[in-house]
Amino acid sequence: MSVSLSKGGNVSLTKQAPNLRVAMIGLGWDERSTTGAAFDLDASALLLNASGRIISDSYFVFFNNLESPEGSVKHTGDNLDGSGDGDDESILVDLAAVPMECSKIVFPVSIYEAPERSQSFGQVRNAYIRVVDQDSGTELTRYDLTEDASTETAMIFGELYRHQGEWKFRAVGQGYASGLAGIARDYGVNVG
Fold this sequence. Notes:
seven-stranded antiparallel beta sheet
């Protein structure tokens, strides 16, 4: 049975699915209004150490770097227009393969070329993040974002983290007006 989270809520995935090996992080959204240009939202993952900083730049998984160095986190590909039902983009996390130095994986979604296209999350509806047991296909938890983020061009939807030997998931819903580059810089990624 899936646990529905509200902003700031968390759930123990280890207790929910004791045999969980691979977590599929599914992210979805719909366009609320059109600006003429297609909406291209991009999901990412940042693998962070105990200090909340990126382990190294190669641990920033996104459309130009689809896999972490050891292969524990894999982006399944870039959806350029968000068309179709279900998850628009997904990221697979092999929990046993995540390096021990990684204490948290943060999942942002950003609007590609948002300033140039005059787009923001205020023009997006039905945004969500969910965690699915990849082996069984069972949805474990889901967070539906409901905020009106009229100026934000990127948002951290949620985070997967280790706590006392367990894997947990937290619903975040934090917006950024500085796009994906702003999020990446905040976590210590060297942005060109």
